[in-house]
Amino acid sequence: MYTSTFISTALFAATVLAHGNITSPPARQPGPAMAQACGAASVSAILADGTGPLENIPSNGSPNCNIFLCKGAQFADNAALVQTLSPGSVVPFTAELPIPHEGPANVSIVDTATNSILFGVPLLEFDSYADENLAVLPANNTAFEVTLPTATGGRCETPGECVLQWFWFGTNAGQTYENCVDFVFA
Ligand SMILES: *[C@@H]1O[C@H](CO)[C@@H](O)[C@H](O)[C@H]1NC(C)=O
Ligand SMILES: *[C@@H]1O[C@H](CO)[C@@H](O)[C@H](O)[C@H]1NC(C)=O
Ligand SMILES: *[C@@H]1O[C@H](CO)[C@@H](O)[C@H](O)[C@H]1NC(C)=O
Ligand SMILES: [Cu+2]
Question: For every residue of 62-127, which 3-state class applies, written as one string?
Fold first, then answer.
C-alpha cells in the first residue's frame, strides 16, 4: 500500500507541476555548463520539471547566469542540437501546454551575446496564448510555424550566436516560459 500511494502521489505531483515547453525543433537542455554557470540547483529544477516557469529556477546570482535567457541553458551543453536553416524558410514548431495560462507569447530570433531581438520584430506574436478559459486551445498554440528573414546581413552564421526563442508569459499566473532553439543560417 505504501508503495502504490507513493507512486500515485509522485505521478500527481509531476502532473500538477507541468506548464509547457517546446517539443520540436530540439531546444536547449540543461547540462554541466549550465551547472557551472548557474549552479547545480538550477539544473535540478529543470530536470524535475522541464515544463516549469523561469520563476521556479533558482539562479546562483553569478553574472555568467541569466535564467531569463534560454532558461539559463548554455550553448556549450547543446552544440549537437544546432539546426541549419535557410534564410526565408518556414520552420514548424510543436509545443506542449499541460497547464495553460493566458497571456502574450512570441517567437523571435535573439542574439545570445546581448539578449536582444534581431531583425526588428518577432517572427510570430500571440496577443492571447494558452487561454485556460477556452474549452479547447486553438491548434496554433501547440503547432505553429515561423518564416525566417531573407536578408540576414551575415548574422547567425556562427553556432551559439543566435537562437529561435519561444517566449510565453502567463499574465495571471505571473509565470514566464522560454525555450531556445540553437541554429545557424546557411
Ligand atoms: C519539456 O519538458 C519535458 C518534461 O519535463 C522534458 O522531458 C523535456 O526535456 C522538456 N523539453 C524542453 C525542450 O525543455
Ligand atoms: C514577447 O512578449 C513579451 C510579453 O508581451 C514582451 O515582454 C516581449 O518584449 C516580446 N518580445 C518581443 C521580441 O517583442
Ligand atoms: C491562432 O489561431 C486563432 C484561432 O484560429 C486565431 O484567432 C489567431 O489569430 C491565431 N494566432 C496566430 C498568431 O496565428
Ligand atoms: Cu504554470
Answer: CCCCCCCCHHHCCHHHCHHHCEEECCCCEEEEEEECCCCCCEEEEEEEEECCCCEECCCCCCEEEE
Element (H, E) at 33: helix 32-38
Residue 72 CB–ligand 1 contact under 6 Å: no
Q: The pTM is what?
A: 0.92
CA-96 nearest atom, ligand 1: 1
Residue 7 clears pLDDT 70, i.e. is over it: no
* 78 Cβ closer than 6 Å to some ligand 1 atom: no
Q: Is the CB of 138 under 6 A from ligand 3?
A: yes
Domain annotation for the chain: domains and CATH numbers:
23-185 (2.70.50)
